[in-house]
């Protein structure tokens, strides 16, 4: 046990930390050294290869044996460049299969870092990458390098936006949308139409997935189906709604399949389809015949009005990430910090603590003495809330709690206040042992 | 008055706005205006009779909100006349919210 109260204790702690930092740095550089450094310049198109080498013939023999693929098909994969936007639940299996199947050049775009809550579905990343705080693009590139050293994979550790998307995506033949938010989906769609690149798009949430190939062989683009973004309140992401690990795995794997079909020009007359996947419902797969390209489409129609990329976060009313947003609905005197609530609770000041998360989240963790009525059920259960003084309202991030306080105050609970930042802030500022999810 | 019965399904999260993932709906064969009942009538019926909460997450004006795709017998409703599609007995109509997670 280190005694932080004495200079000797602090010196010993400092020595220990310096040693730990040095060790972690060494591990990080060792990890980076494993990846080929020459892959950075792979965005320039090399001369197409016209023959497979003997090692390639041995490696891809199971492809070569099928007339549907054969040497011709394998060479098409070998000479192709595919970029995967998002190295998350969808991008992970998609990248692994594209690399394994012999796609010659890959790009990975993701600026997030690997976190422990990713590992239940983002199978390309490792615990070690999470501990070291490596970016997902880097971690994915390392995995591709371990799997297939001949695949030239570029890690784009950037936030794709209107300024960089056209230049970045133009270096690839096919674009895979494996992102996690509406704003980036509209950005990638518009960029693919402007660059005339096919877009293999999928999404997954909870127990369901959807997949479509857009802007391919005269078919529709994402905007032909969804001309306007949904209202932000209608959009749920994986960090709010959850997702069963294998669901994006299925969809990302299907994306790799669709990339192969695009590159090999399989079934050129097939009509555009939306593939629906449902993990727990029947039928598990459902193929929906889609509309064609829409003459009124703002980006791919003959009278297109979108001729350059837009401000997508503003268009969608939502940031280009899937993290929590931060609302500020309440005046300061209707809010308290977690530490001042902690002080009041420690001093046993009488109060009511109302936790407005869904019961499934309340079951994960909650503060002592909290009563649980979900925000979605509060209007119907308002009679169950005693008129205590004061009432503190808490949720996961401190957004729903503000809406609940507004509602409670309108219903006559004039002492309701919310805990700023919710249980995430509680864990960060009061009790580091309180779980974060 | 003659009626017709269709099955309605919700997915992509819309099921949380309704009592369940699937329900059968019986509508009059002709609507209030005396014309054959359409998907537009069905959407109105669902809004008024089945929706539990937050109508803005399902409808916008007399159609579905942006981000919802309607499927009629496993075909995109745009190919079937969208709101004006005339319902037939035993039709299967799916309302699906587009997902964004990944």
TrEMBL record, chain A:
Residues 347-435 form the Rhodanese domain. Pathway: tRNA modification; 5-methoxycarbonylmethyl-2-thiouridine-tRNA biosynthesis. It comes from the Eukaryota. It holds the Pfam family Rhodanese. It is found in: Cytoplasm, Cytosol. One of its GO terms (biological process) is protein urmylation. GO terms for cellular component: cytosol. Its main location: cytoplasm. It comes from Tieghemiomyces parasiticus. Keywords: ATP-binding, Cytoplasm, Metal-binding, Multifunctional enzyme, Nucleotide-binding, Transferase, tRNA processing, Ubl conjugation pathway, Zinc. This is Needs CLA4 to survive protein 3. The active site is at residues 238, 395. Binds 1 zinc ion per subunit. Zn(2+) binds at residues 221, 224, 297, 300. GO terms for molecular function: adenylyltransferase activity; ATP binding; metal ion binding; thiosulfate-cyanide sulfurtransferase activity; URM1 activating enzyme activity. In the N-terminal section; belongs to the HesA/MoeB/ThiF family. UBA4 subfamily. CDD domains: ThiF_MoeB_HesA_family. Coiled coil: none annotated. Its cofactor is Zn(2+). ATP binds at residues 89, 110, 117-121, 136, 180-181. PANTHER family: ADENYLYLTRANSFERASE AND SULFURTRANSFERASE MOCS3, UBIQUITIN-ACTIVATING ENZYME E1. InterPro entries: MOCS3/Uba4 (IPR028885), Rhodanese-like_dom (IPR001763), Rhodanese-like_dom_sf (IPR036873), ThiF/MoeB/HesA (IPR045886), ThiF_NAD_FAD-bd (IPR000594), Ubiquitin-activating_enz (IPR035985). The keyword Nucleotide-binding applies.
UniProtKB/TrEMBL annotation, chain B:
Its main location: cytoplasm. Pathway: tRNA modification; 5-methoxycarbonylmethyl-2-thiouridine-tRNA biosynthesis. C-terminal thiocarboxylation occurs in 2 steps, it is first acyl-adenylated (-COAMP) via the hesA/moeB/thiF part of UBA4, then thiocarboxylated (-COSH) via the rhodanese domain of UBA4. One of its GO terms (biological process) is protein urmylation. GO terms for cellular component: cytosol. It holds the Pfam family Urm1. Keywords: Cytoplasm, Isopeptide bond, tRNA processing, Ubl conjugation pathway. The modification 1-thioglycine is found at residue 102. The keyword Transit peptide does not apply. It is found in: Cytoplasm. There is a cross-link at residue 102 (Glycyl lysine isopeptide (Gly-Lys) (interchain with K-? in acceptor proteins)). The keyword Nucleotidyltransferase does not apply. Belongs to the URM1 family. Acts as a sulfur carrier required for 2-thiolation of mcm(5)S(2)U at tRNA wobble positions of cytosolic tRNA(Lys), tRNA(Glu) and tRNA(Gln). Serves as sulfur donor in tRNA 2-thiolation reaction by being thiocarboxylated (-COSH) at its C-terminus by the MOCS3 homolog UBA4. The sulfur is then transferred to tRNA to form 2-thiolation of mcm(5)S(2)U. Prior mcm(5) tRNA modification by the elongator complex is required for 2-thiolation. Also acts as a ubiquitin-like protein (UBL) that is covalently conjugated via an isopeptide bond to lysine residues of target proteins such as AHP1. This is Ubiquitin-related modifier 1.
């Amino acid at each position: 046990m280190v005694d932080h109260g004495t200079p000797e204790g602090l010196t010993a702690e400092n020595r220990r930390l310096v040693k730990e930092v040095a060790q972690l740095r060494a591990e990080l550089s060792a990890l980076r050294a494993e990846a080929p450094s020459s892959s950075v310049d792979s965005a320039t198109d090399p001369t197409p290869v016209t023959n497979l080498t003997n090692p390639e013939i041995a490696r891809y023999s199971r492809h070569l044996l099928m007339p549907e693929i054969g040497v011709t098909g394998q060479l098409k994969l070998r000479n192709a460049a595919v970029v995967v936007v998002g190295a998350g639940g969808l991008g992970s299996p998609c990248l692994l299969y594209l690399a394994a199947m012999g796609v010659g050049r890959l790009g990975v775009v993701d600026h997030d870092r690997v976190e422990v809550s990713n590992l239940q579905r983002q199978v390309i990343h490792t615990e070690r990458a999470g501990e070291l705080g490596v970016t997902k693009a880097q971690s994915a590139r390392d995995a591709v390098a371990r799997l297939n050293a001949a695949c030239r994979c570029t890690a784009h550790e950037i936030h794709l936006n209107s300024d960089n998307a056209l230049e970045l995506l133009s270096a690839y033949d096919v674009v895979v949308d494996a992102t996690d938010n509406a704003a980036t989906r509209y950005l990638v769609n518009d960029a693919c139409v402007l660059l005339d690149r096919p877009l293999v798009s999928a999404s997954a949430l909870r127990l369901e997935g959807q997949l479509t190939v857009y802007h391919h062989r005269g078919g529709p683009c994402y905007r032909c189906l969804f001309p306007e973004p949904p209202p932000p309140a209608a959009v749920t992401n994986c960090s709010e709604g959850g997702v069963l690990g294998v669901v994006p795995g299925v969809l990302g794997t299907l994306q790799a399949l669709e990339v192969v079909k695009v590159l090999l020009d399989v079934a050129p007359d097939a009509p555009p389809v939306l593939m629906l996947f449902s993990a727990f419902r029947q039928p598990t797969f459902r193929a929906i015949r889609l509309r064609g390209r829409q003459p009124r489409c703002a980006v791919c129609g003959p009278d297109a009005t979108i001729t350059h990329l837009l401000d997508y976060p503003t268009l969608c009313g939502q940031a280009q990430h899937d993290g929590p947003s931060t609302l500020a609905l309440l005046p300061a005197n209707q809010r308290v910090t977690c530490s001042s609530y902690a002080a009041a609770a420690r001093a046993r000041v009488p109060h009511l603590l109302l936790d407005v998360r869904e019961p499934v989240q309340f079951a994960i963790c909650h503060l002592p003495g909290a009563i649980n009525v979900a925000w979605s059920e509060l209007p119907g259960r308002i009679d169950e809330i005693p008129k205590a003084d004061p009432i503190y309202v808490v949720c996961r991030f401190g957004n729903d709690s503000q809406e609940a306080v507004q509602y409670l105050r309108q219903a006559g609970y004039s002492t309701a206040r919310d805990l700023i930042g919710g249980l995430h802030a509680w864990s960060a500022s009061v009790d580091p042992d309180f779980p974060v999810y | 008055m003659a009626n017709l019965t269709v099955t309605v399904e919700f997915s992509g999260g819309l099921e949380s706005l309704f009592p369940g993932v699937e329900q059968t709906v019986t509508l009059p064969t002709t609507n209030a205006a005396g014309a054959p009942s359409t998907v537009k009538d069905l959407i109105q019926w669902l809004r008024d009779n089945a929706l539990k909460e937050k109508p803005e997450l399902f409808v916008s004006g007399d159609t579905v909100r942006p981000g919802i795709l309607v499927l009629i017998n496993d075909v995109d409703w745009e190919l079937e006349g969208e709101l004006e599609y005339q319902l037939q007995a035993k039709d299967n109509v799916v309302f699906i919210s587009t997902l964004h997670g990944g």
